[in-house]
Each structure stands twice: as C-alpha cells, then as structure tokens.
Amino acid sequence: MSTIRVVLIENHDLTRIGLRSGLQQSDGIEVIGEAVNAIEGLKLLEMTKPDIAIVDIGLPDLDGIELTQRFKANTSWLSVKQY
User: Would you call 55 exposed, middle or buried from its count of C-beta atoms within 10 A (0-12, 13-18, 19+)?
Assistant: First the structure.
C-alpha cells in the first residue's frame, strides 16, 4: 500500500498539532508539510503536490474556500484527485 501524503493548512497551533498527531498515528499517512495561512499554503501545495490537503476555512489572509478555488483554478494540478 502506498503512503497518503497530507498537508495541513491551519492557523491555530493547537488544532494543527492535534491533527498532525492524530494523522501520524495512522499507518500509511505521512504529514509532509504545514502552513499557517493561505499564501504559505498555496506555496506548500505547489511545492509538495500532496494527495490530500486539510484546509481551515477561517484562515487570516484568505479563507479556505478562496484558497481551494485558487488551487483548483491552477491547471498544473490536474493530476490531483478532487473529492
């Protein structure tokens, strides 16, 4: 089984740490990066090309919905599965 590569985009430290800890306890899941705002998150997504991104809706610079729309509008992401 291949490893599921996950990034976390969450501005609250405690929430991000809790998500990371929970995910790291699961076999087959690897947290490959974290960001605390949408701009860093978009850069992280471009650099790492994860299988899954867990995105906070209430980010300080752009909300998670806007981040997701910008992410989906980028044609270089066509290989990423969208659910």
Answer: buried
